[in-house]
Design goal:
mainly beta; about 425 residues; five-stranded mixed sheet; single chain
């Protein structure tokens, strides 16, 4: 990551963690992929279902229904339901199964289609950090589970490939006016499970899976100061420059790209990926790619015949339970203890560890102190078994409201990283 970004990111500490008091708040319980249930204390309740006989009758409301997606494997048609009784708004997710029976998800949990992942995700409190894009909760209707984790573009199960997160930097201009801008960090997870920060950019990148397992990466090149399209191999991390241009559309079956060049007077071109040849785009090309783009951003929509009846009352439907669990990306030995990590990564050769999970599993203490007279600026002191250390921007990183510290800092306070086992 750019040193400027890391330095300015430290200014966010107070703004993003003040609500937590003097200590960083704990993260959700770690219960997935071999982690024992007692490994950490839960701070998010598991979703609970209500059987048909337990469904309580509530006053009727006038509900509006919007189609979300159709799950072909389970034969379920999902809809978003909303209502307003003059004082309060209500929202539920309902679905019709292949037998025509209607059910609902727990109140406070909704499901929607994630176009980048190509799968449904759950939305609700504690189910993802939507401001920065680090965590999402992938929904598996067949298993009745929601897995909260970091999902990557490049493999069918979204466990390897590329992922970006959004972060913010705060600073002052020449007139001493405060401003806030965003930047993006790019992470790569290879097939062996190792996660590395591989790039940073001021503009949002885009990643598109290719049929051969590679990924189209569309991002701003700070070196060239223009948009760039690359092809990356998630298994190796090797990136190959394709062209300096913006992506208009991608024809997956035909293996073609419609690109718009950064030069205002240069015409758009169609590039064939198999041979790298380019030609000027025609009006017919624009029509074809426009139709392809429209189809690619459509979720599998339910058939009109499954539309909810006008008198359907979601609040009175039986509730289907969903078990929410956390994805574990690594198991580390830190200070002699096995620690389960929902997300960790390598940055500039050192391992970055989430402070929240260290607090829960090793007894690490974290104290936040605001820097007097400096807006949005704080310092953080870590207290371990062999001493204390105040972290600086060079030794830490903020992702949303989560503080990550380098393994070099942990070693100084008696919590050395003695082993790291990445989950493939």
């Amino acid at each position: 990551m750019n040193k400027k970004h890391k330095r300015k990111a430290s200014l966010l500490f107070a703004a993003l963690l003040t609500a937590a008091g003097t200590a960083v708040a704990p993260s959700p319980s770690v219960q997935a992929e071999g982690a024992p249930a007692a490994a950490v204390q839960a701070d998010r309740a598991q979703s609970k279902g209500v059987s048909d006989s337990q469904a309580t009758q509530a006053p009727e409301l006038k509900w509006d229904f919007r189609a979300e997606f159709y799950d072909k494997g389970m034969g379920r048609a999902y809809y978003d339901a909303s209502a307003y009784d003059g004082e309060q708004y209500y929202n539920r997710t309902v679905f019709r199964d292949f037998n025509g029976k209607w059910s609902a998800l727990e109140e406070g949990i909704s499901v929607t289609w994630d176009y980048e992942l190509g799968r449904p995700v759950l939305i609700g409190k504690g189910l993802g950090d939507y401001l920065n894009g680090l965590f999402s909760t992938a929904f598996d209707p067949a298993q009745g589970t929601g897995t909260t984790g970091v999902f990557f573009t490049g493999s069918k199960d979204n466990r390897s490939g590329l992922h970006y997160i959004k972060n913010y930097e705060i600073g002052q201009d020449a007139q001493q006016n405060w401003y806030s801008t965003s930047f993006f960090s790019v992470f790569l997870r290879t097939g062996d499970g190792v996660i590395k920060e591989v790039d940073g950019a001021p503009l949002r990148p885009g990643f598109i899976p290719m049929p051969d397992g590679r990924v189209l990466a569309v991002q701003y090149s700070s070196a060239a100061k223009m948009n760039e399209i690359l092809v990356m191999n998630p298994a190796t991390g090797i990136r190959k420059h394709l062209v300096y241009a913006s992506l208009g559309s991608y024809d997956v079956k035909g293996g073609r790209l419609l690109v718009r060049y950064n030069q205002p007077n240069r015409p758009s071109e169609v590039i064939t990926l198999s041979n790298g040849k380019a030609r000027k785009a025609t009006e017919q090309d624009f029509k074809e790619f426009s139709n392809l783009a429209e189809k690619s951003y459509q979720a599998p929509i339910p058939n009109a015949s499954t539309k909810p009846p006008a008198d359907l009352q979601p609040q009175n439907l039986p509730v289907i339970p969903i078990q929410i669990r956390d994805q574990i990306t690594a198991r580390a030995t830190i200070g002699g203890k096995v620690v389960y990590l929902s997300f960790a990564f390598i940055q500039n050769g050192r391992t970055m560890i989430p402070v929240r999970e260290l607090m829960e599993q090793t007894g690490l203490e974290v104290i936040q102190q605001k820097v007097a007279g400096k807006m949005g600026s704080s310092t953080f002191t870590l207290k371990g078994p062999e001493g204390t250390a105040t972290v600086a921007a060079a030794d830490s990183m903020m992702i949303g409201d989560r503080l990550y510290v380098g393994s070099n800092v942990l070693k100084r306070i008696g919590l050395p990283v003695q082993g790291m086992n990445w989950n493939p």
